[in-house]
Specification:
The protein has 115 residues and is an alpha+beta fold. The chain has a single domain, classed as HIT family, subunit A, CATH 3.30.428. The chain contains two helices and five strands; from the N terminus they run αβββαββ. Strands 1-2-3-5-4 form a five-stranded antiparallel beta sheet, covered by helices on one side. It is globular and about 35 Å long. The protein binds adenosine monophosphate and zinc ion (ZN). Zinc ion binds next to helix 1.
């Protein structure tokens, strides 16, 4: 269920210290180490979910839970009124760096056009 060499699996297990701003047992959230906006939080399934297109139903469910968690975290940190953006990078062209599914929650400034 987890990959011993994956950095997000290690953070999820607590092997690498990174304060969790949210954790419901299925999904946890941490602040991005290189924030691209005043609020930049990553929603990450505890289970190692790799390529989204190949995700098993249970993995896809864990990915979907990240959206629900993002809505909760957005409320918790007070960005629902100003608005926010959710981003998933998948694969080479999207510039995915960490091959464990995660959702970026970005907020706190005008985010501009996508692409
Ligand atoms: P992606 O390009 O979608 O794979 O995004 C990976 C994100 O993880 C990047 O925004 C990194 O800044 C972030 N990141 C990598 N390592 C850590 C870490 N140890 N703690 C918090 N964020 C991290
Ligand atoms: Zn992983």
């Amino acid at each position: 269920m987890t990959d011993p060499n994956c950095i997000f699996c290690k953070i999820g297990r607590g092997e690498i210290a990174s304060p969790k701003v949210y954790d419901d047992g299925v999904v946890f959230a941490i602040k991005d180490i290189h924030p691209r906006a005043p609020t930049h939080i990553l929603l990450i399934p505890h289970a190692h979910v790799g390529a989204l297109a190949d995700a098993a139903p249970q993995e896809a469910d864990a990915a979907a839970r990240c959206v629900r968690a993002a809505a909760q975290v957005a409320r918790d940190v007070g960005v629902t009124a100003g608005g926010f953006r959710l981003v998933v990078n998948q694969g080479l062209d999207a510039g995915q760096e960490v091959p464990h599914f995660h959702l970026h929650l970005l907020a706190g400034r005008r985010l501009g056009a996508m692409g």
